[in-house]
Amino acid sequence: MKDGKFLTMAIESSCDETSVAVLADGREILSNVISSQIEIHTQFGGVVPEIASRHHLNNINAVTEQALAQANVKLDDIDLIGVTSGPGLIGALLIGVATAKAFALAKNKPLVGVHHIQGHISANYLQYPELEPPFMALVLSGGHTNIIRVTDYNKCEVLGQTRDDAIGEAYDKVARVIGLGYPGGPKIDRIAKEGNPNAIEFKRVMLEKDSLDFSFSGIKTGVLNYVNTQRQAGKAINVADVAASFQQAVLDVVVTKAMKAAARHNEKRLVMAGGVASNSALRKQMAAACEKRGIKLYVPDPVLCTDNAAMIGCAAYYMYKAGELSDLSLDAVASVPL
Ligand code: KG4
Ligand code: ZN
């Protein structure tokens, strides 16, 4: 406690961002330090798990010190320690979990292991102080694509998920195919603005009529086939057109399914989360679709969409309030259902 406020310190290390945050009363960000390894992994065209773990290990203490200093608090002032315990890269997760357990043990503080996706959804509580469950949530990240009905802070029902690639994975793979490199999502976002989204007709995979599931693996093959056919015919490809057309095909599916889920459950509030939720075309098109149907759309600022520890701290706070504590046997888990 400091100045009568309950302090949560949280750690996120599930992929290639080492992040530590300090929150006051669960929803006020005092600090949210994010050390990105993007430049290191760019030369390999994607995240190399072993390298990610090593950098987390090198960075975690400095990032923690920075987060405490920026929040102007000491470790002794912290009331709760939250950490992403899964899903994610196992070696990367282990660094965060081991660090959180060490702090909890050394300072005798309560510990909460957080599901990464619950963290992403919770980013919206930080962005919108008035937001409370229930609402419909759309989680779009590098590892996940889910439509989730959030009924309470710690209760939810997964209505739909990807059957193969996650949406961010599709962005990253397509970016590689058209020579944009890693990380693909932001690069496609940028170049698509200069392209024609109707230039090439890529298939919109909607699956069964009532399904809220997704499938994105086919579109990568669609783009690959298009590029190869053009090359074999000796024709140049217009990268901006391919990026814009790919993006439009994916976003048509995402917007349609989100609207279907909201209508089916008569939900007038839709929350977006995850790295792909920072996509500018998606934000614009989802806002338009929501406005047409009288649905209020919630989307965090881009820095709270991509991986960060503040969102994990917020989720940890509500789990703590519900008595969902972890002990020192907490383990990192690479794959775990919500
Ligand atoms: O949520 P996140 O930071 O990490 C995971 O939990 O996976 O999401 C990372 C993903 C990557 O696939 C990245 O390419 C994508 O989010 N991404 C974007 C944008 N910014 C990040 N995709 C599309 N447009 C963006 N602006
Ligand atoms: Zn994430």
Description of the structure:
By secondary structure, this protein is α/β, with parallel strands linked by helices. It has two domains: 7-123 and 305-321, ATPase, nucleotide binding domain (Nucleotidyltransferase, domain 5), CATH 3.30.420.40; 133-300, 2-Layer Sandwich (Nucleotidyltransferase, domain 5), CATH 3.30.420.40. 44% of the residues lie in helices and 19% in strands. It is built from eleven helices and ten strands. The protein has helices spanning 38-42, 49-71, 90-107, 116-127, 167-177, 184-192, 217-232, 239-264, 280-292, 302-305, 309-321; strands spanning 7-12, 17-24, 28-36, 80-86, 111-115, 135-140, 145-152, 155-161, 269-273, 296-298. The strands form two sheets. It has a five-stranded mixed beta sheet, sandwiched between helices. The chain has a five-stranded mixed beta sheet with strand order 8-7-6-9-10, sandwiched between helices. Helix 2 (49-71) packs parallel to helix 3 and helix 5 packs antiparallel against helix 8 (239-264). The longest helix has 26 residues, at 239-264. The radius of gyration is 20 Å and the shape is globular. It starts with 6 loop residues before the first strand and ends in a 17-residue tail after the last helix. The mean pLDDT is 96.
